[in-house]
């Protein structure tokens, strides 16, 4: 008879659960779910050896175990601390933890630019959510923020080092998923940065996954940059027969245009199945995919704004009053507007007024799409847009 495994009892914010020995406090909290789950910026359950860098997942252990119920003297990183039988942990019920997390957020933002209005990650950014939920309104830092030039790493990815929080997730992804790493964290302390030696391209066919694991807008998809705000796009789950990966993806549509392809993410914002570069960057037509249906998003996500599900559809009566003729016979939109002739995906830059006024191939240049640090200011922002501080 198989030997029954002994489970450890752990209590987090007054809720008790049982987990296998070796489970971390974070994973025990995820098993319970809800508000008591500590936020994570560097841990990634789908990768090995992650966690321990950002300190956003700090918790207080008020009793170490049944055998030794003394509290741990300092707050601990829940993603790296294993539970013991009888352990008691406090997260949102402990004001000192919340205060410490505020401090961590302040440090994470100390060199971070005010790029949200122009950043591709806005609307799905872990740092935005973290700052909103745990941050303070201002900063006490009076020093100039450090800035970097943007770097194209390979044909598909651009690195905005100014936004990087040095979580190491992309480094582990390149090591463990893409199978070859040509980039890493160089230098130490205030000089530390993600870099490729002599700007080597990252050419692995799975390297695009670093974009999905990046919790901020530091690694951006060059085929999507500045194409749209994520909350204007509609996510759809889709799949295709792919020789390199499972081919299960999420398409981000605007009308019939596939503006972006990403991996599907679970409730913790982590990739479910890694996808290859071909699926991510080269299959940008609806006809390339078998659409499964709209993605079920967290109802609090800003991406849900304006997307209605289960809405009662008004009765169609136009056809009835038109003796069975289709309403489009009344008005062919193409004859009065160029809007539907525009394929945003084929434009090398952002659309302009001219694009929608008779010249569907016209495109402009995003004010932030400049090199050599033009327009940098004290706040370290990448933007030359006068509306961005
Ligand atoms: S990564 Fe982009 S969206 Fe996130 S906080 Fe920074 S600037 Fe804002
Ligand atoms: S580029 Fe993104 S994933 Fe890589 S270390 Fe920086 S924040 Fe993390
Ligand atoms: S998530 Fe635990 S230290 Fe970063």
TrEMBL record:
Residues 8-95 form the 2Fe-2S ferredoxin-type domain. The lineage of its organism: Bacteria, Pseudomonadati, Bacteroidota, Chitinophagia, Chitinophagales. Pfam families: Fer2_4, Fer4_Nqo3, NADH-G_4Fe-4S_3. GO terms for molecular function: 2 iron, 2 sulfur cluster binding; 4 iron, 4 sulfur cluster binding; metal ion binding; oxidoreductase activity. The keyword Heme does not apply. It comes from Flavisolibacter ginsenosidimutans. Its main location: membrane. InterPro entries: 2Fe-2S_ferredoxin-like_sf (IPR036010), 2Fe-2S_ferredoxin-type (IPR001041), NADH_UbQ_OxRdtase_ferredoxin (IPR054351), NADH_UbQ_OxRdtase_Gsu_4Fe4S-bd (IPR019574), Prok_molybdopt-oxidoreductase (IPR050123). Residues 96-135 form the 4Fe-4S His(Cys)3-ligated-type domain. Its cofactor is [2Fe-2S] cluster; [4Fe-4S] cluster. Residues 359-389 are annotated as: Disordered. Gene3D superfamilies: 3.10.20.740, 3.30.70.20. This is 2Fe-2S iron-sulfur cluster binding domain-containing protein. Belongs to the complex I 75 kDa subunit family.
